[in-house]
Recover the amino acids of this structure.
């Protein structure tokens, strides 16, 4: 509880850090904020052209699927790998003041969340044009994606940040792990692709699938996400949260030696 | 009025793991080639059995060679380093200026950096805006306050940092080597500022090699060597002791 109070007390500071991250990200670029939308859109166009041929699907409906997978996955990867550098980057602040270390990973998670929100505007626009029949109250459920993915990546980034402060080559290893997770998850590939290959477990027991489904079910199918989707996502938050708290309790004070 | 620092038998070790095995690769490598390590790095024992009691309003100068433990002492008091044994009790809000370049954003202007540094210290944007004019005035940087910080000289950065750190309030002021970078006029102002802070019963600890500054600003001196406190005495005595024993 005290720890949370410390995070709250420093709220102006991490909010400022996050905003200055965004500013420097878009500084001196013509499109600024719009890059967050243009980039995934362009890539989606390219990928869906290829994949829709391979899998024989209609491009207009497959493209939003890829786009939704891409922006959410980008966010998770960005938070976990970017977050693993959070302490190393913030060493100047850590060596000078005593704020709870979790604010530095919160900063990453928050910055990414804002980028994700911007990118999702493009997704929503696309879906509205291509599949207007999906619009309904269930879209409210899609909004819950933001707090949920945020609460998944914050502890996730915190865990990797602690490990990366000790082992500096972790980001490389993480890149590999994330790539592997990408391959076995229905991110660009449809769940049916896995099911046809008799790999049901990769869908049903894959938290990433359930996480994505919270946004995909309403947007792409016009349905409410299932209770199971929420249960898996919540479970992931709790597991990561507990690990992050345990690791933090053990290592927080020693991090300064590693910087 | 209860700003105090109590240190009892404090020991500080720098964990040696911090400079060994810095990658997964080397960890695996060490695991494979067990027991054949080339050199053994031990934990550094930076502070040894430090016992000090500081009362409200005291101004303390830390004297000692490079590596004697001055900075470690300050960072330990600031609570940045975890102590390995003993007890550390610090009452009051700590404001430290330990490393100046840290926490400034080179691309932002001096004025923006005042805000950022204030936020770093945990203040609200509103409180900082109300203090801004006073800080700008004290730093006395003229038109440079609206220039990006990367155009500042070290002395100017010191002035800005000092102005912010001493304006935002706090009970214990920790300074490391830094005040010396200001010019004579600024030093005069800084001295007046420190004196007024101390009158509000604030504690100041200053580590410096500049014996005249220490002599003027402090009333009590701690001489450190090899992580031990060699002498704890009034400042004139401490400076004399330091000059006799260590400056030859």
């Amino acid at each position: 509880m005290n720890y949370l109070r410390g995070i709250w007390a420093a709220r102006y500071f991490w909010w400022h850090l996050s905003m200055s991250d965004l500013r420097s990200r878009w500084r001196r670029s013509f499109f600024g904020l719009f890059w967050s939308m243009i980039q995934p859109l362009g890539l989606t166009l390219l990928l869906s052209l290829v994949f829709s041929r391979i899998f024989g699907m209609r491009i207009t409906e497959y493209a939003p699927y890829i786009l939704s997978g891409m922006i959410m996955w980008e966010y998770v990867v960005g938070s976990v790998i970017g977050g693993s550098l959070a302490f190393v980057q913030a060493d100047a602040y850590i060596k000078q003041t005593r704020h709870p270390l979790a604010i530095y990973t919160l900063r990453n998670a928050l910055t990414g969340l804002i980028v994700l929100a911007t990118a999702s505007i493009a997704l929503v626009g696309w879906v509205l044009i291509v599949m207007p029949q999906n619009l309904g109250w269930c879209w409210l459920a899609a909004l819950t994606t933001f707090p949920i993915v945020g609460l998944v990546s914050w502890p996730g980034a915190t865990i990797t940040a602690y490990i990366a402060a000790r082992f500096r080559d972790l980001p490389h290893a993480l890149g590999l792990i994330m790539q592997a997770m990408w391959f076995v998850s229905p991110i660009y590939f449809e769940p049916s692709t896995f099911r046809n290959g008799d790999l049901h477990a990769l869908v049903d027991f894959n938290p990433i699938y359930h996480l994505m489904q919270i946004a995909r079910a309403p947007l792409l199918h016009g349905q409410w996400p299932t209770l199971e989707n929420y249960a898996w996502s919540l479970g992931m938050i709790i597991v990561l949260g507990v690990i992050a708290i345990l690791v933090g309790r053990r290592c927080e004070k020693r991090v300064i030696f590693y910087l | 009025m209860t700003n105090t620092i109590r240190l009892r038998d404090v020991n500080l070790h720098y964990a040696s793991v911090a400079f060994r095995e810095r990658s997964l690769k080397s960890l695996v490598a060490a695991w494979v080639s067990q027991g054949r390590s080339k050199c053994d790095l031990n934990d550094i024992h930076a502070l040894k059995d430090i016992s000090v009691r500081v009362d409200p309003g005291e101004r303390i100068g830390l004297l000692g060679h490079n590596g004697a433990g001055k900075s470690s002492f300050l960072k330990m008091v600031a609570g940045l380093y975890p102590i390995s044994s003993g007890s550390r009790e610090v009452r009051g809000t700590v404001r430290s200026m330990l490393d100046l370049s840290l926490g400034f954003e080179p691309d932002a202007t001096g004025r923006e950096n005042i805000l950022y540094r204030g936020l770093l210290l945990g203040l609200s944007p509103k409180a900082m805006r109300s203090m801004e004019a006073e800080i700008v005035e004290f730093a006395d940087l003229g038109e440079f306050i609206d220039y990006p910080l990367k155009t500042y000289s070290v002395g100017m950065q010191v002035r800005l940092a000092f102005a912010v750190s001493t304006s935002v309030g706090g009970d214990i002021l920790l300074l490391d080597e830094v005040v010396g970078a200001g010019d004579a006029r600024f030093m005069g102002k800084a001295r007046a500022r420190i004196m007024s802070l101390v009158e509000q019963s604030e504690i100041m600890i200053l580590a410096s090699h500049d014996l005249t500054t220490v002599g003027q600003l402090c009333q009590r001196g701690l001489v450190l060597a090899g992580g031990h406190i060699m002498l704890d005495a009034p400042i004139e005595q401490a400076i004399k002791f330091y000059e006799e024993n260590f400056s030859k």
Q: What stands out?
A: Helices of chain B lie at 24-32, 70-77, 110-120, 125-139, 154-167, 184-199, 211-217, 235-246. The mean pLDDT of chain B is 80. Chain B is about 35% helix and 25% strand.
